[in-house]
Amino acid sequence: MGNQLGPPARRLANQVNDVGESKLRLLWAVNNRWPDREKTTLMPTRQRPAAQTYHGLREAPDTTAVTTQARAAFVAAHPDLKLQPLVVVIAAYNEAENIGTVLDEVPQQIADVPVSMLVIDDGSTDATTEVAERHGALVCTLRANRGHGVALRLGYRIAREGGAQYIATLDGDGQWDPADLPDMVSLLEAGEADFVIGSRQLGQTENTEALLRNTGVRLFAKVVSFLTGTQLTDTSSGLRLMRAGLTGTVTQTQPQYQTSELLIGALLQGYRVAEVPTVMRRRLSGTSRKGHNVLYGVRYARVIGQTYWRERRAARTMPPARPAADSVPAARPLRGPSKP
Question: In whole angstroms, what is the distance from residue 6 CA to residue 263 CA?
């Protein structure tokens, strides 16, 4: 049994298993510290997944490099791109089974406004990009998953640079119904709002089993309503419509918990926000990648607090992004839920 490591060496070898690239260097240290031991060969170590969902509160160090590369490749593939006045932006990660159905539901015009579809593939390891292209979307692909918020910000930028007047967002899992977008577009076209949210609290949530998450939606809506002085019922909806310029003036830094950051920033910069009822459907397939409900809630609350204080400090030194105007404080239903 002369080729076995002693206890001190085994401890270092166990550390090697968790470090990966440092394996050879640490093995050299082990063998030289105990020269009386014969040369040892470790069993293959467990490798980390090649792709992981990013859940951090701060951007990964290489985020700028990843998004810059993706945007450059997109621009090279679509030179002189001119987008329609309304761009539907979908950030998708490993949604090859769902994204085609989602895109097929988006009409070519919404409330008589022509539509372009833009998918930001957030580092998928499946065929999300290929499926989205086959179903008529323009696709910008990141080489690594860097967070839903990062992907959306890249989509907002591409939409603005392509001449979009309005930007709508949907999720790649089919939970939000684009049939609710016409009423939202009508509000912006009539000049009654700058940012419209599809509220599942004014409408309906099909996933009634997610009791804790639904409770959190109501709680955070009350918190944000109190902080901003605007009555809201849903601050984390993935169904949103906004004037394209808004996405370029409101500060956005969150890689994952971006919905409340954009909403709070828009409100405190003087943009008018309204809500319409919507139905949040079940995912077409697969499972949510948002992580554990409690941890998600804690991080979401932290982002609300950080965004509020950041925008309050900025408001003391900067004028409002738009002239002061009456907001839409009571997010009244404009029609009944889109589904019974």
Answer: 58
* Whether the Cβ atoms of residue 172 and residue 95 lie closer than 8 Å to each other: yes
Question: What would be the CATH architecture of the domain defined by 63-315?
Answer: Alpha-Beta Complex (3.90)
For residue 121, the surrounding DSSP H or E stretch is: strand 113-122
Report the chain (340 residues): mean pLDDT per 10 consecutive residues: 46 38 34 40 36 73 97 97 98 97 97 98 97 98 96 98 98 94 97 97 80 85 96 96 98 92 96 96 73 79 94 78 44 38
Contacts of 187 (CB under 8 A, 6+ apart): 193, 196, 274, 276, 334
Residue 138, beta-bridge partner list: 118
Beta bridge partners of 140: 120
Type of residue numbered 151 = A
Tokens (6 digits) for 230 = 């605007």
Rg (CA), the chain: 24
Distance, C-alpha 100 to centroid of its chain: 19
Which residue, 96, 133, 93, 95, is CA-closest to 117? 133
**Domain coordinates in residue numbering, the chain:** 8-48, 63-315
288 C-beta neighbours (distance < 10 Å), count: 13
Q: How far is CA 154 from the centre of its chain?
A: 11
H or E stretch at 150:
helix 148-161
Helix (H) / strand (E) containing 182: helix 181-189
